[in-house]
What does this fold into?
Amino acid sequence: MITVKLGVSRISVAFHDETGRIHCVLVRQTPRETLSPVAWRELLELPPPFWAPDRSVAIVSVVPAYTAPLEIALGGADKKRIVALDRSAWGLKILYNPPASLGADRLAACAGVRTRFPDLEGAAYVVADFGTHTVLTVVDGAAVLGGSISPGIGPQLKAIGQGLVLGAIPLRFPEKPIGGNTLESVTSGVVLGTVRGVEGLVRDMEKALGKRLNLVLTGGLSRYVRPLFKVDCRVDRHLIHRGAWRTAKEVQKKTPDTPNNGKG
It folds into this structure.
């Protein structure tokens, strides 16, 4: 199976075997304008194994205007390879208001927790996704309660670099909280500040719920920021792909006529 995460800044395509294991992930920049199916295929430049007719495709998109032509690009005009993932497929009760406004990427990440960390199924946890935005999503049992959204580390570095007329600021690991120069100060404020902010939000969320939340990190920068956390947490940067794979397989099992049912 192939799973696709279509985000506002990047699109990633993962190649899974029949057990769900991810063998490779290809990442491309999300285009700034809508593309035709042909243009999508040219942009993605996927190797031959990704186009095998026996490989089903599950797409998690937060850019609705791009989804249909991408489905045609990957699944053909009849979209036979596409496994539809609607909101009822994730096995989660959505208490967000309105439910339709909760991003599919957040649902997929929550499903990915249950795939990657089976002991957390039915538990209370919060997923912290470190990507273009830093997004926290709280799950209690099988209910998605909500969370928080803030600018990601990358956009913060870009914005503050422009404001200080420094140009591009490299992503660096903060060695100390008290920056001895401007670059160190920015690194401390943005990178370490984001981590401490997440820790503080999780504490407040625990107080609001009256229970402990297991913290799970995901997203492109999750492994980078993991050593900065002072609280126990788990990490898997590909939770969205893992959740999409698990949910698509469950859809295939429930729907005998689902395209390529039973294939990896």
About this structure: The first strand starts at residue 2 and ends at 6. The chain has a mean pLDDT of 91. Helices lie at 37-44, 64-75, 104-116, 153-163, 182-209, 222-225, 239-254. The chain has two domains: 2-87+244-254, 118-235.
